[in-house]
Structure prediction request, 148 residues.
Amino acid sequence: MEIEADIKLNLPEWTEYRKKNGLDPLGMQNSSVNLYQTFLPGISNVTLRIRYYGLYAWLCENYAKRVGGENPETWKRYIRRTEALYALIAYRHGGESGVAGIEWATKAFESAGDDPIDFAEAAEPGSETHYLQQAWGAYGAAYGSQVF
Prediction:
């Protein structure tokens, strides 16, 4: 068998390196996102903590039974106070990650010492000592539309 001396090889031509930004530059998550949205409409890749779905479902029922009002400002205050208290509990328990307001809770515990922590003030929208700047807390930022 004779080998030709003039064989052309088709080698890959590499493009120049470009840094890609974003969470999914290769599009590998798209198929999984489509799949879970088929089964759980409204769920998104922003809503990563399943514990918040349980918290908000419980909170909705609790609010309906105890308060029952339709004033959105009352509901907002109820949500924000619950989230701030949850952050304090998560900090006190220790080792919890991905909790909305955990940095605020850490500072609140460190500065309070043995004194009680008044989290109602930090739960007020626009408060200087806010646990989260977003007016509707984590609920409004990532979970409200899915829970609805």
Observations:
- Residues 71-148 form one domain.
